[in-house]
Design goal:
Layout lengths: L1 H27 L2 E3 L5 E4 L3 H7 L2 H32 L6 H9 L6 H12 L5 H8 L11 H28 L4 H9 L4 H12 L1 H16 L3 H6 L11 H11 L3 H26 L6
Antiparallel strand pairs: 1-2
Helix pairs in contact: 1-13, 3-7, 3-10, 7-10, 10-13, 12-13
């Protein structure tokens, strides 16, 4: 009873704001819904079948997987490179440590405005640089492939501060004696990173991979502010599609179905990471 009393408030909040919405979403995915979001006609798996046959939805699924893989891989690799660089005992390195982690304090809206200015085809920094070097000006926000690249760059920039800070904190715990022994043995820096750094911080690296993957699947703010799913639905990721179907089109049944499918995809991808990567983690 004492344990239930302590857990009661948390369980109540989770029940109202997490478990009930999840069950209601699952329930609505089997129904046609009205404008109020209430289930009207039971249609079974029709929503799921129609979605999986919809070319537009398949395109959003492919775009999402492309985005998630690029963001996760680049963020983790670049975060590790910066953490290793910042772990060197060099004069003035503390300034770079602060700069590398500074994106943690930037909100989504500020990041979107900043990068929209960078990618602006008229007055953007990249446009000015292209003109100065006599290179063709790229239309980042109107070309489908470039728009995806712009979103990936912005997301990586946003997530990099957190990834860097976590990995850098882990690197601080690696005994310096290991590197000293490696130096005496005459090994290269690359060998030290692969055979000392990565194994020693593998639990933290594994955690960062999982968190980065899930965060990438949930990306919404940058998409909404920078591209609104365009151009030609090239950046219409699954989360943004759910928002469009539910709150813009009023199709709550289909949006619920998309939410369930997205949940399953995230769960499967996370389980695959545990299955494939956890064996390589040294605790």
């Amino acid at each position: 009873m004492a344990a239930l009393l302590f857990l009661g408030p948390s369980l109540l909040v989770l029940g109202i704001f997490v478990f009930y919405p999840m069950l209601k979403t699952l329930y609505l995915s089997f129904f046609l819904t009205n404008d109020a979001g209430e289930g009207t006609v039971f249609i079974g798996l029709t929503n799921y079948i129609s979605l999986l046959k919809n070319p537009s939805y398949i395109a959003s699924l492919v775009a999402t997987l492309t985005y998630v893989i690029l963001v996760s891989a680049i963020t983790v690799v670049l975060g590790l490179v910066l953490a290793v660089a910042a772990n060197q005992h060099l004069k003035g390195i503390k300034i770079f440590r602060t700069l590398f982690s500074s994106t943690m304090g930037v909100s989504v809206s500020v990041a979107a405005i900043f990068w929209l200015f960078v990618f602006n085809p008229s007055v953007g920094i990249l446009t000015q640089l292209s003109n100065a070097l006599h290179l063709p000006v790229l239309n980042w926000m109107t070309d489908p492939k470039l728009a995806m690249a712009a979103i990936v760059i912005t997301t990586v920039w946003m997530h990099l501060g957190f990834t860097f800070l976590i990995l850098f904190g882990s690197l601080q715990q690696v005994p310096s004696s290991l590197y000293e022994a490696a130096e005496i043995a005459g090994t290269s820096k690359w060998y030290q990173v692969l055979h000392i750094t990565v194994p020693m911080i593998s639990p933290t690296l594994f955690f960062v991979m999982i968190v980065t993957l899930i965060d990438a699947f949930k990306s919404f703010g940058l998409i909404d502010l920078m591209t609104a799913g365009g151009p030609n639905n090239a950046t219409n990721l699954l989360v943004y599609r759910i928002y469009q179907d539910a709150f813009l089109n009023g199709n709550y049944g289909q949006a619920s179905t998309e939410s369930i499918i997205l949940t399953v995809i995230i769960a499967v991808m996370t389980l695959l990471q545990f299955k494939l990567l956890e064996k390589r983690v040294n605790y």
